[in-house]
Amino acid sequence: MSHLHIPDGLLPFWLWGSGLLVALVLLVLSGRAANPQRVAYQGALGGLMLAANALPIGPLEYHLSLAGPIGILLGPLGAFQAAFAVSAILALLGHGGLTVVGLNTLVLGAGAAVARPVYGVLARVMRVPWAMAWSTAAGQAVAGGLWLAVVLAAARPWGAPPQAPSHLERLVAFAFPLWLLGLAVESIVAWGIGRFLERVHPALLPGGLTVRAEAP
C-alpha cells in the first residue's frame, strides 16, 4: 500500500486538510534547502517514481512506489519534493482524489525519509544491495503504518464509541497480507537497483565510491 486511492468526499475535512497543511509546510521548508544543481537529477528520479506508481503489476493492479530507493538516492528533502509532485500528478490522473494529495505525500515521503538514514547505517556493515533492500523494507513499514493510521482514522472518528468493524476496517484486514507481499516486492526491486548501481555507477550512492569499500 504505497498511497491512498480514495476519491474526494470520503475523508473528513479535518483529516485531509491537516495532511495537506503539514505537507505544504514541509514542502516549503524542504524547498529552502534545495540544491538547484540537482534539479535535473531529482526530476529524472521523480519521473521514475511516477512511472512506477502509475503502472499496475498483476491482476490486483499493485504498483511499486520506489520510495525507498528514491529516498536513498535523493535524501529526505529531495524525495519529499518528488513525492509531492508524484502525488499531485497521480491525483490528476485519477489515482485518488485531489484531497488526498497531502496525505499521499506524507505516506510516500515518510517511506523515503526513513530509508535514507537506515541505509547510511546498514551500508557500513553489509553490501549495498542488501543495505538498500533492508532500508526500503524499513521505509515501507513506516509508510504502511501511516497508511493504516489514516484509513483507521477515517473509518472510526476520534472519540466515537466502539462499534462493529466498518467496511474500511475490513478493507484494512484484507489489505494487510497484500501489503506484506508488496513490502517484499519493493525490497527485492530495491536489491536489484542497489546491485546495478554498485556495479555500474556507485558514485550515485550516498558516500559515492567509498560505500563499496566500506562494505564487507
Automatic annotation (TrEMBL):
Question: What is the protein name stated in its UniProt record?
Answer: Cobalt transporter CbiM
**UniProt xrefs under PANTHER family:** METAL TRANSPORT PROTEIN HI_1621-RELATED
* Record-level GO BP terms: transition metal ion transport
Quick one: where is this thing mainly located? membrane
The GO cellular component terms are: plasma membrane
Domain of life according to the entry: Bacteria
Segments passing through the bilayer: 13-32, 39-58, 70-93, 100-119, 131-159, 171-193
Q: How does it sit in the membrane?
A: Multi-pass membrane protein
Q: What keywords sit in the KW lines?
A: Cell membrane, Membrane, Transmembrane, Transmembrane helix, Transport
What Pfam families is this protein classified in? Answer: CbiM
Source organism of the structure: Eiseniibacteriota bacterium
Q: Where in the cell is it found?
A: Cell membrane
